[in-house]
Amino acid sequence: MTVIFLLTIALKSYTQGEVFLTADFEGGSKPSGWTEVRVSGLKYWEYQNGGGANTSLPDFRHPAAAYEGNYNALFFSQGVGPTSRLITPAMNLSYSIKPVLSFWLAMDEWDGSTDQLKIYYRTKSYLPWQLLETYTATLSVWTKKEIILPDEVKVTTLQIAFEAKSNYGYGVCIDNVLIDERGVLPRTVSTVNMYQTKETVASGTTGNPIAFVEIETSGNSGSLNLTQANFNYTGTDINEINAFKIYYTRDSVFTPTSQIIGTSNIVGNNIQFSGFSQALQLGLNYIWVTADIKSSALHNNNVDIELPANGLTINSITYPSVAKTPTGKSLIEESIITTDFESASSWSLNNSWAIGVPLGGGTYDPNHSFAGTKVLATNLNGNYPSNITVGGEHNAISPQANATYYKNVNLRYRRWLNIESLDRSRVWLSNDDGSSWSNVMENQFQIQDRVWKYLLHDISSLSTRKGNVKVKFSIDESDNSIEYGGWNIDNFAITGDFIASDVGLKSMVAPIVKCGLTSAEVV
User: Fold this and answer.
1) The whole model's pTM is what?
2) Beta strands 201-202 and 330-333: pairing type?
3) Counting beta carbons within 10 angstroms of the beta carbon of residue 248, is it exposed (0 to 12), middle (13 to 18) or buried (19 or more)?
4) Measured between alpha carbons, how far is 409 from 479 in angstroms, rounded to an integer?
C-alpha cells in the first residue's frame, strides 16, 4: 500500500494599497501605540495646528497650519541641541513586497537657521537604529516625502523613528504619516522642470549655481540612471565662461560636494555632459549647473541656459519632449577685487584666523569649501576662543580695493557661520585704508548655518568713489560658556559699476583777445 502525504503551504502576500500604518495626529496628542524617547534636552514633541512661532507673535506660525485637518506633530525649541525621537508601534511587514513610507514635512528657517529631521528604522526593540534619510533643507511649505523601505524591514516587529533636532529654526512639522504596500511598480520619470537661481555673479568667481533641473520619478522597481545632459547657452557670451559643471542633490539646496564626474564639452552654444551614470531616487531629484566666470566678463552681461527638447538621457530615453526655458537670468557684476583663497593671499589675519582646507573640527563647521579646496576661516579645525573682548578682537582684513571710478558697489561672498547668541560676529568696512571702520552686519541672534549661503551687502554709501576700501570679518566678543565654529568665507568679491563717463571740470579756458576782453576783466 502506498501512502501519499500532501503538504499544503499557505503563502501570504499583501496587495497593492494595503496600509500598515497611518497617523494624521487629529487626536491632538501622541497617537495610540506611539512612544517617544528624548535623545538630548527636555523638549517633547507637541501636537498643534502649524509650526513654531516667535513668542512675541504667537499666532504667526511657520507653517501657518497643519497640512490637512487641525493638528500635526511638531518638535520646536527656541535653542540648539534638544533632540527627541517619535517612534511608531511595531508593525508586521513580513509579507510585504514594496512598502513605502510617506509623510508631509515642513521646516521653516528662523533668522537663517533650520532644524533637522532624521528617519530611522529597527527590526527589533533591542537592536540599534538604522538611518534611512536625513533632511536639513529649509521647507517653508508642506512638502511630501517618500522613502522606499529596504528589504531588511520585512519583519514582524518593524519600528520607524522620526528624530527631530532643534537648531533654532521654526520646528520640525510632520503630518499624514503613511506606510503602505505599493506592489511592484516600474520606476518611471514623471515630470522634468527647470529653474533659474537668478543670483548675481561676480566676475572671476567659480562654482556659481546658475540653474537646476528638477526630475520627479515614481515607481519602486528597477533603476533610473541619468547618463547624458545637454544645455543651450542663452546668455550674452559663452566665451565669458571658463567652465561648466553639474551636481546632484536630493533637495533644492545646492551642495558643492556632490559633483557629477564625467566629460564636458562646449560646441558653439551647446554644453554637453556625458560619460557618467547618476542614479535617480524615488521622488524629486535635482541636477545643478554651475559656471566659472572669467575675470574679463563684462558688467551687466547675463548668464543663462535652457534645457532643449530631448536634452536629458535617462535609461536610453530622452527627456523632456519640449524645451524648458525658465524665466530669469544671472547678471554679471564686475569685480573690483575678488579671491577664492586658493593661492597666496595678502589678507591680514590675527589670532586663529587662517586660510586653508576646512577640516570640520568646529561645532557645526563645514569640512568642505564652496569652491576649490580652501576657505578663509576663524579656525580651520575648531571653535573660536572664549572670552574675546573689545580691544582683543579676532579679525581678518581684506586687501585694499580701489573703487575710485565705481558706483553701485556691493560686497558678495559665500558664508558658513555659526555663532552663539551672546557672542558677536561682525562685518566692517573702511574707506580710509583701515583708519576707521563702519559696521555693515552683526548677529543679533544665534546663527547656525548648515550649508554655504550667499550673502550680499550694499556698501555703495560707504564705498562709491573711494580709493582705499577694505573689509573686515571679525569675532568681536565671546563669553566663557558656549562657542561654535565661527566664520567660514569663500568666493569673496567687491563688485561695482564702472563710471565710464561723468560730468566735471576738465580745464579752465582764459579770456582771449578776439572777444574784446582782457585778463583783468571781472567775470
Assistant:
1) 0.82
2) parallel
3) buried
4) 35
